Amino acid sequence: MAECWICSTCGVQYGESEAPPARCFICEDERQYVGLAGQAWTTASELRTSRRNVFVSEEAGLWSLRTEPAFGIGQRAYLIQTGEGNLLWDSVSLVDEESVARVRALGGVRAIAVSHPHYYSAMADWSGAFGNVPVYVHEDDRVWIAQPCAGLQFWSGEQLELFGGLRLVRSGGHFAGYQVALWPDGANGAGALFAGDQPQVCLDKRWVTFMYSYPNWIPLNGTAVKRITASLAGLPFDRLFGAFGRNIVSDAKAVIARSEERYLRAIAG
Predict the structure, then answer these.
(1) How far apart are CA 63 and CA 82, in angstroms?
(2) Domains of the chain (ranges, CATH numbers)
(3) Which of 11, 131, 204, 230 is 20 to 30 A from 105 via CA?
(4) How many CB atoms are closer than 10 A to CB 231?
């Protein structure tokens, strides 16, 4: 029977087939890794029997969802609510009836946007569950699509206005088409930035960092870091939401600025 196969290491879902793919090209890239036991796969149906999604209210108009027990990279997705519809930011691999019903009760999904290929997970299934809503991915990351879907929308350039004041910004760096999302109404109107893992909020949440590969500890060069911070400099935000529950609740722009200075000193030699 044909199944939607999901890489057990990165959590990215591939299209239906009788047997799993021979390889996960996302994990074979130097920014990710193949598991120590070799390439392993699970299926969408197996995930639905072994895990569930947990929803958490982060602030007014914002919900996070994560899968427990943790799967793949373990990132969170966010449902950003606006008066013109909701955006699902980033994605998780588990799509089940309970989660879809919960999202519908919160107003559904008008569109999806994903920061970069490591978080594509089951974005095609999330789109399909809400009538093939648009899935916004930057054109520069087109080559990393493992499961095409009817709603997939590639955009080009540096910024894309969505709805309800939401905006996507290409910052590059970790991936050529890496994008962040700006929610100007977040943080009580001070603005919130959804950064995925770039800038990555450190364990010491007074700092962020920038990496080409996090699991393989490959840093970005100074030119790339300056481009990232320049792309964020003019955006109105005070709060930064990361992908793993590490958030900067205030003064995020100052944190990014001093973290850039520290990073550039560290790599200067």
Answers:
(1) 12
(2) 3-267 (3.60.15.10)
(3) 11
(4) 19
The per-residue pLDDT for range 107-122, each reduced to its tens digit, is 999 999 999 999 999 9
pTM over 0.85: yes
Span 21-70, pLDDT tens digits: 999 999 999 999 998 899 999 999 999 999 999 999 999 999 999 999 99
* 201 touches 247 (CB < 8 A): yes
Among 49, 117, 115, residue whose Cα is nearest residue 77: 115
